[in-house]
Description:
alpha/beta; 19 strands; binds magnesium ion
Amino acid sequence: MPDRELQTMPIDVVLGLQWGDEGKGKIVDLLTERVDVVARFQGGPNAGHTIVLGDKRFILHMIPSGILRSHTECLIGNGVVIDPLRLIEEIAALTDAGISTEGRLFVSKSAHVILPQHIMLDERAETGSGAIGTTKRGVGYAYGDKALRWGLRVADLIDSKWTMKLRRNFERHQGLHRLSDDPETTLREIFDRLAEARDVLAQLAVDGPAWIWRCNSAGKRILAEGAQGAMLDIDHGTYPFLTSSNTTTGGVCTGLGVPPRAIGEIWGVSKAYTTRVGEGPFPTEELGEMGETLRQAGSEYGATTGRPRRCGWLDVPALRRAVALCGVTKLALTKIDVLDDLDEIPVAVDYATPDGEEAVFPITAEQFAEVKPVLETQPGWKNRTHAARTWDDLPERAQQYVEWISELVGVPIAMISTGSDRQHTIRRD
Ligand code: GDP
Ligand code: IMO
Ligand code: MG
């Protein structure tokens, strides 16, 4: 990646700043209007990114949200864990909806593969005590094998020696976890299931970093699409209640094979309130009727698993932490329309600190669970913002709310989302 190109063609990034489901898919789709290439750099089929175009709703899991614009090319980068069987389903669903991925979708050969044994283990771990509420897609176990250096990559699966490599992985798990009472039959079933997927992967496989560098040198505009959110980052999130990849900006570099100086604008996406799916601390959670009100108003049910999302107020200390971790340059504030009917809107502006003690950000899940948020309440606007497209369409109190959040977080809010459709957006950049 020669400097010359990097200076003219930085790679922009879209990241979630909370516990996922901030509306990244919608924002990526919107920004893709002026982008040539969209690349996913981490996560896998645990993600569910929704894009609404008129009466059509698309939910993407591994394929970048940019695929819905016919002029784009899309890459699933090396940092993603790929379930080949679900990838085929995802491609088929798009094809059925009239979106062709032919010649536009590529997969890095060094991306790790989620194997059926990873899903079996994830499901098993989630049935016992100590479940963390994963999506049961095998994501943590595939990343685990990657770190242990037992994993299979796309390059291994499309290699002629793939059965030998897969057998080796299976037998290691069988030895440790007794995956099956009849391992030979189970293994044969796994071979059968993956046989067709291998052919599809072989057609999509590229040298991911070299592919991105080439796009960059050709002057193509590239957008990196994050999955999950900063508070689910394996290093910086609410450990152990998080996902198994780096969801923050550093993940772009390792997950695509690009240097830090290649990064341009860093868009952070946050809802105007907070949601989380699965277990783990959530300081501003509303457990009672108000939580249910937010869930209904925001249709807060998981795009991947359908689970009800836990709901609560905006958590500014966590958001500021995420902004600092990611180096966010522009904020996209989503779902403000969900607050339209509220009399008042509380926001956690700080975490309470006992007298005489220095403020510290909680590190352990136990410390996080003990956090007492300091709530400040703003009057609601009690007026419709849904579908608003210009700043002037917003009631004054909604404008004040947006400005207040921007000040609290310390980053300009360059985009405000007022509905799930592509058109329901206010741009201020
Ligand atoms: P992602 O994982 O970050 O892409 O987000 P999800 O797709 O999981 O969840 C966001 C949900 O909110 C989806 O159903 C979107 O269609 C919807 N959505 C996005 N932006 C808005 C908005 O501004 N207002 C409303 N009401 N819904 C939105
Ligand atoms: P998008 O990209 C919200 C959560 C799971 C669980 C934890 C670990 O749509 O924002 P995993 O299956 O990754 O091992 O689960 O992380 N989680 C998400 N929550 N949105 C997501 O993705 C998520 N991906 C994983 O609910 O708590
Ligand atoms: Mg989602």
